[in-house]
Write a structure and sequence with these properties.
By secondary structure, this protein is mostly helical. It folds into two domains: 153 residues, no CATH class; 149 residues, no CATH class. Helix content is 50%, strand content 5%. It has 16 helices and four strands.
C-alpha cells in the first residue's frame, strides 16, 4: 500500500490518545450493569457426548436433545442412527479425545470465563433492551465434523438459542486447526466466542437501509460493530473485526489514503455486488488499495463513520442508533472525512 510519509510513532500516539479519550467518555457515563438480572444457561453438550461409551448411549444422548441434534447436524430424527455410526468412531478416537481434553483446560473452556463473559454481555443488552430474552447456550465438540457442508457449525445464533462448536474456537494453540484461511484464524480463539456471538446477535436489532449501495452496507456493518462494542466495551476491537493490532493501527493511521481510494473511485454509491464484495466481503487483503490493506476494509470504515456519529451524539442510546435505516443521514451527520479523531 502506498502511504504518505507520516511520522508513524506520532500518529500512533495520537491514535492511543484518541482511544483513551473515547474509553474515558464511555466509562464515565456507563451505568452499573451489575444490578441487571440475567440468566446464563449454558448446556455443555460436549461433555455429555464425550461421556458416551457406545452407540446406545449416543442414541440416548441424541433423543435427549433432538432439536439441537437436528438443527446443528442438519438431519432429521430418522437419520440419528446413521449419524451415531459416523460420530461414535470420532469420539472414541484417541487423537480427538486428546483434542477435546485440551479444550477443557482453563486456558480454553474449562473454567467460568464463557459464562462470565456472556453474563456481562447479556446484562448490557438487557439494560438497553429490557425485553431481551436470554438465549439458551449449547456447546458441542465434534472434531470439525461436517465442515464444508454443515451450515455454520462453528456458531449459530437465533432468538432463542446459541450453538457453539468449541472445536472451532481453539485458535492456533489447539492441537488441530479448522480448515479455514490463515487470516480467519484470528477470529477462532477462545476469547472471540462471545464477541462474535454478540456481533451476530446485533442483527436482531440492526435496521437495514432501503438503499443497496456500498455505503449502506458499510453503515450496517458499522452499527453492528458499535453495538457489539457497547455490549462488551472491555473487549479488544481485534476480536470483532479479526484484524491484527498492527492492521488496526495502520488502518487508523493511514485512513486518509484508504478514504481517498473510496472517493476517487466513486465507490460509496456503487450498487454492484461484485464491487461491494471487494470491500465488505471476507478477504485476506484489499489489493485494490494495497497489498498490506486488510480485507473487509469497508466494514472497518463503516465502523469509523458510525462510531464518530454515535460518539458525537452523546444523548443517543444504542437502540436509537440501531433503528436508524438512513445510511446517508448517518454518513452526512458524522462529518467523517477520512481523518483521525481530534484530540
Amino acid at each position: 500500500m502506498k502511504y504518505l510519509n507520516f511520522n508513524l510513532l506520532f500518529s500512533l500516539i495520537l491514535f492511543i490518545s484518541a482511544c483513551t479519550q473515547k474509553e474515558d467518555k464511555q466509562t464515565s457515563s456507563d451505568p452499573d450493569f451489575n444490578n441487571v438480572k440475567v440468566a446464563v444457561n449454558i448446556q455443555r453438550l460436549d461433555k455429555e457426548m464425550f461421556a458416551c461409551q457406545n452407540k446406545e448411549e449416543l442414541l440416548e444422548f441424541f433423543d435427549k436433545y433432538p432439536t439441537f441434534i437436528s438443527d446443528y447436524f442438519q438431519i432429521s430424527s430418522a437419520g440419528f442412527d446413521e449419524l451415531s455410526d459416523q460420530l461414535l468412531p470420532l469420539i472414541q478416537n484417541q487423537g480427538l479425545r486428546d483434542f477435546y481434553k485440551q479444550s477443557q483446560e482453563p486456558a480454553f473452556f474449562g473454567g467460568q470465563t464463557l459464562e462470565n463473559e456472556f453474563r456481562t454481555a447479556f446484562q448490557h443488552i438487557k439494560y438497553y433492551y429490557p425485553d431481551f430474552k436470554e438465549p439458551k447456550i449449547y456447546t458441542i465438540f465434534s472434531g470439525f465434523f461436517g465442515q464444508g457442508y454443515l451450515k455454520n457449525p462453528e456458531l449459530t445464533v437465533s432468538d432463542s438459542a446459541i450453538y457453539i462448536g468449541l472445536d472451532y474456537f481453539m485458535g492456533r494453540k489447539g492441537k488441530y486447526l479448522p480448515d479455514v484461511y490463515d487470516y480467519q484464524l484470528r477470529k477462532t480463539i477462545p476469547e472471540a466466542v462471545v464477541p462474535q456471538t454478540i456481533l451476530l446477535l446485533s442483527q436482531r436489532y440492526n435496521a437495514t437501509s432501503k438503499e443497496k449501495s456500498l455505503l449502506s452496507d458499510m453503515i450496517w456493518y458499522g452499527k453492528s460493530f458499535v453495538f457489539a462494542h457497547t455490549m462488551m466495551p472491555e473487549k479488544a476491537d481485534s476480536l470483532l473485526i479479526g484484524y491484527t493490532t498492527q492492521q488496526i493501527d495502520e488502518s487508523y493511521t493511514f485512513q486518509k489514503n484508504i478514504w481517498a481510494h473510496f472517493i476517487d473511485n466513486q465507490l460509496l454509491y456503487n450498487t454492484q455486488d461484485p464491487i461491494k464484495a471487494k470491500y465488505v466481503g471476507e478477504r485476506p487483503t484489499t489489493p485494490e488499495i494495497g497489498k498490506s490493506c486488510p480485507g473487509s476494509i469497508g466494514r472497518w470504515l463503516g465502523w469509523r463513520i458510525v462510531g464518530k456519529y454515535f460518539d458525537e451524539n452523546e444523548k443517543m442510546q444504542i437502540p436509537e442508533l440501531m433503528k436508524m435505516n438512513d445510511a446517508q443521514k448517518i454518513f452526512e451527520a458524522s462529518k467523517y472525512k477520512g481523518l483521525p479523531d481530534e484530540d
